[in-house]
């Protein structure tokens, strides 16, 4: 008889059953190769090419139809004939059917051009690199399992989990590798000569050794299509992965999970467009915010579903304890799932040193929450600017290589205390969106089971977020007055030079002047000495801070540099204009926009309204 019989059914059940007589005539197998199950009759619609279930669910529909189209192509059918048959399968077996000729035609065209190696190629003795070596085994592994394996030098092994690409600690990859010797046994059973059969059988047995398994895995990244750069994953900012498919946030339409989307993240929520969230809506009303603030929160959180960062802002949720901030953050983090990352508040605070593992963790995240910093800390302005400014950030995990990424995350920083800010620049303050939380839940008003109730409404809350995302795409964030007022107050209270400028200076007209430049700094040092300020700004830092004030510049005349747009009160005792910092003029555009009148026409005339609209454009 032609062939080998392996008497280890527990290890290779059904894999090496004799299927050819000596004459080479195929003999019908009574068991399905790898499962050992009895073969059933081919379905009428599949013509014996694939065993298709009586009812194909929506989440696997496109994948099954694609595989059937590939099988029909390999049988030699024309593209038109394949299109007819796939339409028939869709109509008779899919629940629900696609019923879209364009989508079905696209699927068939993809299958027609599909060029990757198929499983039957593994049994083709004429295929390249099917030799008795570690390289041959790596080629077999790539050909048979390569669709489900990727390797990145930054992230290691990733395997397809049916809904996303997941990081693997080699356990799954090793499992694939351990199945390769069984493929070699199959090749031995189908070899043309006795010498080939014996050589392949010996190689199959040797391939079961741990050293050969490890060698195969080590060589696998060099196989075509296995190694990919780290930046091919999660590149589409508009796709959001859920349990039953992938949602396009531009249309709120869902499609099946696809390997080609290269998504590594997933939400624990099942998308149900009809789901409601009454308890969530009640919770938002219990925050006792104005309706326009709630709508702003919805647009902001909806914006956070996407990987788009065009707004270049971060959100500061401020208020004393028991006011709903934590419930809101925890609920959204649960609904968003892998797209949400909680990080220590210190990530965005000053005095961070060493390797930034904390930043490396944020690659690919869309919703980053940081909560409850210690009192008496300060923000790190450069970190916040880079994180929200669409800059490329370099980071690495401990003992790993550096990599670059552009943050996609929207930061939601919540605190009972306001960290200090030493940066008074436009570049910092235009990015802040501060949402005040003033209600306290205590006693009977506090629901101890609220978090669990909200988790039960996760599908409905996801719909609320998607609605917010669509509203943001249409109208922008539309920052309300309450948010602007909170930013104004925060900036006023954190400006280190505010009191000095209020008590010693006037700002607001081009005719104001201090000559020479050094005189203003000398006045500042005198102020610090009188007020027992131990660590005044250095002269360069002081000058930089002053130049960030609207309308204040250093100028030169002949051989002398002087300040323009600012004066000392001792030089201008009768000067009425005292827009000494930004607070008054920053109120102005909101008064104009909301009431239609301006309380500070002289500031409007000098252009401060337009300047501040640029600072807090919505």
UniProtKB/TrEMBL annotation:
The keyword Thylakoid does not apply. Residues 38-47 have a biased composition (Basic residues). GO terms for molecular function: ATP binding; hydrolase activity. Residues 292-450 form the SF3 helicase domain. Keywords: ATP-binding, Hydrolase, Nucleotide-binding. Transmembrane segments: none annotated. Residues 18-53 are annotated as: Disordered. This is Phage/plasmid primase, P4 family, C-terminal domain protein. The lineage of its organism: Bacteria, Pseudomonadati, Thermodesulfobacteriota, Desulfomonilia, Desulfomonilales.
